[in-house]
Amino acid sequence: MKKSFILIAAVVLLTVAGSILAAATITIKGSDTLVRLGQRWAEEYMKINKGVVIQVSGGGSGTGIAALLNGSTDICEASRDMKEKEYSKAEELGIHPFRVSVALDGIAVFLNESNLIGELSLAQLKGIYTGAITNWKEVGGKDAQIILYGRENNSGTYVFFKEHVLNDEDYSDYTQTLPGTAAVVNAVSKDINGIGYGGIAWAKGVKYASVKVNDTSAAILPSVETVSSGTYPISRDLYWFFNGKPTGELKKLINWALSPEGQKIAEEMDYVPLPKEQAQKMMVD
Amino acid sequence: MEELRFKPKSKITEFLGSKLIAVSAFTALIGILLIFIFIFKEAVPIFTNPEIREEASVDKMVFKQKFYEGREAKWSWQPNSKIPKFSLLPLFIGTIKAAIIAMLFAVPLAVGAAIYTSEFASKRMRELIKPVIETLAAIPSVVLGFFALMVLATFLQKTLGLTFRLNALNAGIALGLAVIPIIFTVAEDAMTSVPRSLREAAIALGANPWQVSLTMVFPAALPGIAAGVVLGFGRAIGETMIVLMASGNAAILSASLTDSVRTFSATIAAELAEVVFGSAHYSVLFFIGTMLFIFTFLINLGGDFILIKLKDRLQGRMK
Fold it and tell me: Do the Cβ atoms of B213 and B120 come closer than 8 Å?
């Protein structure tokens, strides 16, 4: 709460300052996964377009979507698609969400560097995180209890992992939830029997597990190449949501972010850029 | 005897001054009231909105529920599941576990330190110890949480051979560190305010310093010490940042002190930022907030009540 309070205070301050200084002000709010990229894009864009002020804040995909629905942001960053409930709520409020993919992200499975296991199948991951598999020896490791680490239950990463790996089943009650991917990485790096997950742009001090779709398919290590080619099984799109098709300055901004120049910045920031054709197709005309 | 009275130079400034003080006091009071009303208002849909009651009525939060065909009924906190589960029991047990460990750790240390500084320490020593312990209160809780997360957790896991790195014990000890200054300050004040005349009388009767402190000062100051303990307990229940960082936040229902725990306050802090506005989950979080508010309010009230009693007793106004 303290963090969000400071954020709110900062946003209010910036809003006041921004509205006095400039005519064109764009607010971007949402996903913590995307916030660094949003900030960098805003910086670069403001450099080449004097007079435009872009304010970027995080808070999580849910926060961003809520802000879009109550009209307090122009752009919502989200690391997941909106839920049906949220779409219907939006229509109720007269908001027409317009979705654009801005980059890709792979969800890596983190293991302690001294863990003997190097690869896991999706079925094994599901078993581990639902609590059906509780000992490393059941997946070919040493005899020790598996310690589960995950994200808070409203993070986009949590929801994505739940939908795509657990097939929407519940996480085990023993899953320890931590605020942020950096905390998960840190926990796994200190815990020999730990396992965690998170975006691939973040990991240090842990190793990635190679993931197999099933027992016979090849084990794929997450990387920029395997995520952008679609061979790594746990990858996702990162989105910007607008209220209706963007026009004017918003349209210029999104088309710039999707341009080779914008996508190159994403790559520099360790995000996975969209494949060229997809980026081209996403552009708003 | 003629009563001494303050004679103001100007009646207007005195009038304005007293009104200003009254206004600020009432502002604080109204502020607290408004906060409570706001939190409670957001929790009300649990009782009134049929759609939300379907998902999270009070009995669903308290009693064991059967969620799936062919599986056992259980208490579970999975608010973002396909079938949302809002059992408060695992969170309640977690909160109590962490708070009790904190008290077990903090009370002996804080009260011991209070006895030493008020009874045995030289004046110089006392002037050193008091500010140092009170500085502990100024350490931001996020720093204590960080310490527990990075250092204490690893130390405890290595020395005790624990399965979970982040657990109730780890969070409880860190919470204890936050609680020590509160208990120490109140207990120390209570013991030093035991009248000199009582001590002198005891010494005159031939009691040694140990007997004076343990059989005379300690019992006389007991209500004050108890008030300190109660206030500390209130802080331990409501403290958020430390448990958020150090407890592992898994809502496990068990008696083990080395399992991870998820507390009420940490749940609010972690989930409120991204909850769907106006959903059942949103209302449940505010319901938890209301309960915490009432809990800590009652505990603090109890602590203050005990303190007032003590003051009366020491000033000889007790019946």
Answer: yes
Q: Are B242 and B150 in contact (CB under 8 A)?
A: no
CB-CB contact of A177 with A139 (8 Å): no
What is the Cα–Cα distance from A78 to A59, expressed in whole angstroms?
A: 10
Name, in order, each residue with C-beta under 8 angstroms of A279's C-beta and a sequence gap of 6 or more. Answer: A258, A259, A260, A263, A273
| Chain A environment of B262 (Cβ under 8 Å) | 177
Q: How far apart are the first and last CA of chain A?
A: 40
pLDDT attached to residue B10: 76
A270–chain B Cβ distance below 8 A for any pair = no
Q: Which residues of A touch B166 (CB under 8 A)?
A: 176, 187
Q: Do A152 and B250 touch (CB under 8 A)?
A: no
pLDDT at A19 over 60: no
Question: Is this model's pTM higher than 0.80 or not?
Answer: no
* A198-210: average pLDDT: 81
> Per the CB < 8 Å rule, is B78 touching A85?
no
Q: What interhelical angle do B168-192 and B123-138 show, nearest 10?
A: 140
SS3 call for A177: strand
> Does the pLDDT of residue A18 top 60, yes or no?
no
